[in-house]
Amino acid sequence: MSRRILIGIAGGSGSGKTLVARTIVRELGSDRVVVIDQDSYYKNLEDVPVRDREARNFDHPDAFDTELLKRHIRDLLDGRSIRQPIYDYAQHRRLEETRAIGSTW
Length: 105
Description:
Largest sheet: 2 strands, antiparallel
Shape: globular
Number of helices: 3
Helix content: 25-40%
């Protein structure tokens, strides 16, 4: 089994994070790289009234389900696949549907 590594890409909005991630995928091959978008880990605001959801600060660290993100990263590094949340930006909630990630390695 090959060793897995984690590369974190941080930066402000519009700073080129997605471009860097896509370049890594293109250069290494999509069968060897998994891209995890932190945006998928926004907390589910389904229980918050719709009018109050948009008032939330989505740039604040508390906006994210950090524990789930950390668990998913650990699982991927250990060779297990995950079911990544899919976030509905228009409704500020998670969909019931998830995305399978890591099952091909």
